[in-house]
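In this supplementary section we document a worked example of the pipeline. Step one takes a protein sequence of length 181 as its only input; no multiple sequence alignment statistics are reported here. Step two produces a three-dimensional model, which step three serialises into structure tokens for compact storage. The input and output of this example are shown verbatim.
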Amino acid sequence: MSIYPYTARSIRGKEIELEEYKGKVLLIVNTASKCGFTHQYSDLQKLYERYEDRGFQILGFPSNQFGEQEPGTNEEVNVFCQINYGVTFPLFEKVEVKGENKHPLFTHLTEQAGFEGFDMNHSSGKLLQSMLESKDPEALNNDEIKWNFTKFLIDREGNVITRFESTVDPLDIEPAIEALL
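The serialised model returned by step three reads:
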């Protein structure tokens, strides 16, 4: 099943049918403004600018579920992203991306592309693994999103192709994006 039956509210509150992105390659990312991975906004914007004219879109979904690292209002998030990272790709209202109240889109994404572990060759992968082992060991045994900046690559038909954990830099995803374009 594709992502097209789902809807989400833009950061300005407009209901968006994801079918509007039919025919485009998408990267769906859960984001946060006060995270150690927040710098990824910069590379996400670079990818967006590089490939937008070839049918590529990034959809950013702020969430405050990981260390309360997205405490601001939707307007504050939008301003932060524009001023600090020049973000022009679509941002959506803050959502829950795990747990009982997670947005239906994220239920679909995690069902289609489960958690396969962190890259233990990456220092942040070791840090996240250790943190979850000590604070929430059950989290390592399910497909829920583990942290901010988990990324899902979607093909032009709306199918989830793969999942990239927080530790994967957006520019490292570029070959996978190019293959779908």
